[in-house]
Specification:
The structure is a single chain. With 282 residues, this protein is mainly β. It has one domain: Jelly Rolls (Sandwich), CATH 2.60.120.10. It has a seven-stranded antiparallel sheet with strand order 1-22-19-24-17-14-13, with no helix packed on it. The protein has a seven-stranded antiparallel sheet with strand order 2-3-4-11-6-9-12, with no helix packed on it. The chain is globular.
């Protein structure tokens, strides 16, 4: 049976947020170290998620929408709308900043998930980068379809950068039972975005995360109605993480240095050409 833990609720402007990871007793699933289920919320052309410039280091941001549009801007000069079914992946490395804004043209529901991946020692001090994938590989799983955001799933590989052995897959299920093939060396988590599932017979809906240890090669998912879930997995992360605000590091000294750089507005995190106000350290 999976361990099912309730998410923590919050509000980001117009958008309700359910924070599934990190949670008490579990900081990572593979290299995944953060999962915020966003919405659904009704937004307008000029009033949406609207998160001003803020810094990151030591991680990748993985943005996935079920409905809606967001405009991404970052200190690398990227300006990229993301729509449902598309992937934005930003590698922070030593430091980057970005903003997430209304697109100026979308009105309707906004619904998705914001994920972070902890970078390994080999790349966490490296250069920042950004990539956008308008199309991702899809595969059929009987009564379900899967979009492979990151990593390799059932022999199908995503084109997105992955610095560790981890995977992220959106699974859209019709009513019925689907058996998802998984890697025995991976630990896994499921976050339901719409509908509801039985995972090994345990009920799971929006507002909770199901955690599954390594040691299995398939995962049965039963849906009573059309449902959408995010499957996360990966080899257990070898390092103990230190996290503060939007930073992932290995020690408090590293976090203190990132905080000092953002407070000083030095060049470590760059500048974002955004009309929204820069977010101060809380």
């Amino acid at each position: 049976m999976p361990e099912i833990i309730a998410s923590r609720g919050a509000q980001v402007g117009l958008v309700p947020v359910r924070r599934a990871l990190p949670t008490r007793g579990r900081r990572t699933v593979g290299a995944w170290c953060f999962a915020d289920h966003l919405g659904p919320a009704s937004v307008t052309e000029d009033n949406s998620v609207d998160i001003g410039p803020h810094p990151h280091c030591g991680l990748q941001t993985v943005t996935w929408l079920v409905d809606g549009e967001i405009l991404h801007r970052d200190s690398l000069g990227s300006e990229q709308p993301i729509r449902a079914g598309q992937l934005n992946l930003m590698t922070a490395g030593h430091g980057v900043s970005h903003a997430e804004e209304a697109t100026g043209r979308y009105r309707g529901d906004l619904h998705g998930i914001q994920l972070w991946v902890a970078l390994p020692e080999a790349t966490r001090h490296g250069a920042a980068a950004f990539e956008h994938h308008a199309e991702l590989p899809q595969l059929d799983l009987g009564s379900a379809t899967a979009a492979v955001l990151v990593g390799t799933f059932a022999g199908t590989a995503s084109p997105a950068r992955a610095d560790t052995d981890h995977l992220g897959v959106e699974v859209r299920l019709a009513a019925g039972t689907t058996v998802a093939p998984v890697e025995p060396v991976h630990e896994h988590a499921l976050v339901v975005l719409t509908g509801g599932l039985l995972v090994d017979g345990a009920p799971l809906g929006p507002g909770a995360i199901a955690l599954l240890p390594p040691g299995r090669d398939e995962l049965p998912l039963e849906a009573a109605e059309p449902s959408t879930a995010m499957l996360l997995g990966g080899t257990p992360f070898p390092d103990r993480l230190a996290m503060r605000w939007n930073w992932v590091a290995r020690s408090n000294d590293e976090l203190d240095a990132a905080e000092a750089a953002w407070r000083a507005d030095d060049d470590r995190f760059g500048t974002v050409a955004s009309p929204l106000a820069r977010i101060p350290f809380p």
